[in-house]
């Protein structure tokens, strides 16, 4: 089983927690290969991570993104973005050729059950398997795609890297980024949805349960996002109760994540328990560094009735965000 993560120095401690959870809940996997695509990881963090892997009689293959920095010369990127923002897109060329299939996992996750089911999931000829992000048609419209399709979350996926290499998918990623001048809604996730459009297999929700499913009831989330396609209520309830991977995604209604002070996510305490098993156990939790307007909006949404907050937020997410991205793209 080949598993890929990407991180820089800032997220090393967050990656460590996800790594421990993966190790603890996949003890039956004899052949578990971890590849970390890193950019600017310090010597101290690398040594800590190697020590952590040794503790579980595993190893980490560190892959520097440095040899991909030249690719930035081919990219039209806004100054706010760096090449490591798109690091998962380079998996096929960065990983050894022997890696024909890989599971990608974001650092801001907990792996709470075996990944065997995800590893063996039949892609049926698709480039990747991803979880439906249950978004409305405006997300696909902003990428220039037909509106009736599914928009996927790229925080956890299984990929057929042989197909990526055979069809030069990495070049297609680079081409799309340049066409959009780097202004892509949800950056690399948007790129994958656009380039792999029609060749993504939908995974069960349990493999990537985002924060929104915990922040809102099933009915509320459906009203908020007006999704083109959505999982059944039964599947959502089962996934939230027994997730394979919990993904601590950004969410305006539940914005404090487990590595931050005063987190109230249902799996926040579980994350802290795994953190105690890492070399960063004594590190101070982060402060909420969101911009003032973001903090104020969260307070505002909790102060008004939920139905009103949902309507306002739906307008912002469905119309204002896409308009803002199109505006920035035209100005670039």
Structure characterization notes:
- The chain contains 14 helices and ten strands.
- It has 332 residues and is an alpha/beta fold.
- The protein has one domain (2-331): Alpha-Beta Complex (Spore Coat Polysaccharide Biosynthesis Protein SpsA, Chain A).
- The strands form two sheets. The protein has a seven-stranded mixed beta sheet, with helices on both faces.
- α1 (12-24) links the parallel β1 and β2.
- The longest helix is centred in the C-terminal third of the chain and has 26 residues, at 306-331.
- 41% of the residues are buried.
In short:
By secondary structure, the protein is of the alpha/beta class. Helix content is 40%, strand content 15%.
How many β strands by DSSP?
10
> What structural class results from the helix and strand content?
alpha/beta
Distance between the termini: 42 Å
The CATH homologous superfamily is called: Spore Coat Polysaccharide Biosynthesis Protein SpsA, Chain A
Question: What is the H/E string?
Answer: EHEHEHEEHEHEHHHEEHHHEHHH
Which range does the strand content fall in? 15-25%
Put simply, the count of helices is 14
Please give the order of strands in the largest beta sheet: 3-2-1-4-7-6-8
In percent, how helical is the residue content? 25-40%
Q: Residue-averaged pLDDT, rounded?
A: 90
The CATH architecture name reads Alpha-Beta Complex
| Biggest β-sheet strands, sense, barrel | 7 strands, mixed
Shape, please? globular
Number of domain units: 1
CATH topology: Spore Coat Polysaccharide Biosynthesis Protein SpsA, Chain A
Residue stretches low in confidence (pLDDT < 50, at least 5 long) are none
